[in-house]
């Protein structure tokens, strides 16, 4: 039985389809990016973020992207959080943990009547609206004011299904400790609810 999810949303350019550590992609759309290798599709059950790889080649491949990889500023991260809060208030989705990092976001989410893929897309949409409305969208300067800016999000998301109390608690600890590992302060968001067990 699925009781929750560990959801990872990546910003544009964070994880490429031909990342040497593996990816979910089965092809590379851009010829410029394909020069650095074909898709590295793997079944990722566990994170491969710390798997040894040629990081120089990975960074070089990022230079061939159409836009620079998104690195959220503090102002942009706060807009994303406000967008998330807008959606969470309307949908009543329960969030047990949330960490906003410069180039990706971790959340632990309780099972809901919406599929997790739909929740992920609605969270991204709400955050994007805030970035545009608050005039802090990373790509706003690249298009005219009448055009919608390119997406700041990676195309897919990483979802781990949490079936036990232990898995949920482990995911919450991982998410709560993630900013500290990145050299950021511990994060607390008003929409995060304390986890009190599956029951």
CATH 4th-level superfamily of the largest domain: Transposase IS200-like
How many domains comprise the coordinates? 2
- CATH architecture label name of the largest domain: 2-Layer Sandwich
- The secondary structure category is alpha+beta
Helical segment count: 5
Q: What is the fold named in CATH at topology level of the largest domain?
A: Alpha-Beta Plaits
Beginning-to-end CA distance, first to last residue? 13 Å
Shape: globular
**Which bin fits the share of residues in helices?**
25-40%
What order do the SSEs take from the amino end to the carboxyl end, as H and E?
A: EHHHEEHEH
Which runs of at least 5 residues are low in confidence (pLDDT < 50)? none
The overall average pLDDT, rounded, is 82
Q: Describe the sheet with the most strands.
A: 4 strands, antiparallel
Our Rg estimate from Cα atoms comes to 17 Å
Percent strand: 15-25%
Overall CATH class of the largest domain: Alpha Beta
Number of DSSP strand runs:
4
Q: Write out the strand line-up for the largest beta sheet, numbering strands in chain order.
A: 2-3-1-4
Describe this structure in words.
This protein is 33% helix and 16% strand. It is an alpha+beta fold and 199 residues long. It folds into two domains: 117 residues, Alpha-Beta Plaits (2-Layer Sandwich); 48 residues, no CATH class. The protein has a four-stranded antiparallel sheet with strand order 2-3-1-4, with helices on both faces. β2 and β3 form a beta hairpin. α3 packs across α4. The model has no long low-confidence stretch (mean pLDDT 82).
């Amino acid at each position: 039985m699925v009781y929750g999810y560990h959801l990872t949303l990546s910003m544009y350019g964070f994880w490429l389809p031909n990342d040497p550590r593996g990816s979910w992609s089965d092809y590379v759309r851009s010829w410029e990016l394909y020069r650095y290798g074909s898709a590295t599709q793997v079944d990722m059950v566990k994170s491969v973020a710390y798997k040894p790889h040629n990081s120089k080649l990975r960074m070089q491949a990022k230079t061939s992207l159409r836009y620079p990889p998104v690195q959220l500023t503090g102002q942009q991260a706060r807009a994303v959080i406000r967008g998330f809060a807008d959606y969470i208030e309307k949908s009543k989705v329960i969030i047990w943990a949330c960490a906003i990092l410069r180039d990706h976001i971790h959340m632990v989410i309780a099972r809901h009547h919406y599929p997790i893929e739909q929740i992920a897309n609605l969270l991204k949409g709400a955050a994007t609206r805030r970035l545009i409305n608050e005039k802090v969208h990373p790509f706003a300067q690249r298009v005219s004011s009448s055009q919608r800016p390119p997406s700041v999000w990676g195309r897919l998301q990483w979802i781990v299904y949490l079936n036990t109390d232990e898995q949920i608690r482990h995911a919450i600890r991982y998410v709560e400790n993630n900013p500290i590992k990145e050299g950021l302060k511990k994060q607390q968001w008003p929409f995060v609810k304390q986890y009190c067990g599956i029951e």
